Amino acid sequence: MLSKTKMRKRRIYVFLIAFLLSTVVAIVAVVAIGGYWLNRTVIVPPAIPQMPTNPVNSLVINPPERTDEYGEPEEPQQETPWYFGLVAPERFTDDVRRYRFFTFMIIGLNEGRNANTVMVASYDYFNKEANIISIPRDSLIDTTRNGRKLGSSYIAGSGGGRGRAGGIAALQRDIMTVIGFIPDFYVIIDYDAFFAIVDAIGGIEIYVPFHMRYDDPWQDLHIDIPAGLQHMNAETALQFSRFRRSNRGYRSVTDYARIENQQAVINAVIAQLLRPENLLRVLDFVDIFHNSVDTNLEVGNMMWFARELSHIRGTDALSSYTTPMLGSSREPMWYELLDARGIVELVNRTVNPFTRDIELRDVSIIRE
Length: 368
Fold this sequence. Notes:
By secondary structure, the protein is of the alpha+beta class. It has eleven helices and twelve strands. It has helices at 4-12, 20-38, 153-158, 163-179, 193-200, 234-242, 255-273, 276-279, 282-292, 299-312, 340-349, and strands spanning 101-109, 115-124, 129-134, 185-190, 204-208, 212-216, 221-225, 228-232, 293-295, 318-322, 325-328, 336-338. The protein has a six-stranded mixed beta sheet. A two-stranded antiparallel sheet has the order 5-8. A hairpin with a 5-residue loop joins strand 1 and strand 2 (115-124). The radius of gyration is 21 Å and the shape is globular. 37% of the residues are buried. Mean pLDDT is 75; it is low at 4-19, 53-64 and 75-85.
């Protein structure tokens, strides 16, 4: 069994989830560029899922197969699905979809299966623009108005034997209450990939704006990162992303500044993975990807997106945002309160895949 110190250290590692978007994007880029020369015929854009005639029953996930005490399948007790969801407001149809405009739900789970990172992303093929919106994990979401945090959606949905499919469905439903629609594709990330990737690429370079110093003996956590351009291994990059509180006499940061630091690491990992020497190690990254990421994208689709990513590399076409907030509820629950009007404006400006605007009536956000 793990010692108490090691168990505390593993709990610290949940903070690296915010970096793991970079794992997905960068590994996909490497797979695409390497795979392009191996087999050009498999690189194809994904088909946009069609919206059903009855959007109210559009997202249906049937209960898992049950077995009796001898391991034999039991007869289903009912035909009624246990989860229903909406892919978009009822007045939206396939006719108002933007052609080759793709949207993604990107989730980083910790070892307890809570979502420590929640992001919505989009890629506009014709304008060669990509956008990423981070939604704080402590955001108060409107399911039954019971005050549940977005970070608990996966574990809540996967309970009762519903498993992975239920967790993904719950995340899709809850994210729709925030942005007004369900993204086309999902990427669920195993946080262990972060260390493997950063170490495999030889670390990353990050500019540190000020001396970060924090010691927490209880967690066996000691952060000491000087200001300036720093070459970071996986452990230091984790500390940089986690840093918020500081020792007396040193600067601390807000949760929102910490998200900006996490986005800086995303860009650094992508840049390092796209270096020529790393593009030659495609098989290593493919292995890490398959062991650590759960997605409904096919390999050929991921290769296509990676090739597209290489087209926008070095431009300002990849933009990162955080959902506008009204503030925090503070003690005892520390909910992050979402700004519905600000979110609707941001969604329509960045990730909305429709030619019709999302409106306030299309989101369900608790405003008090």
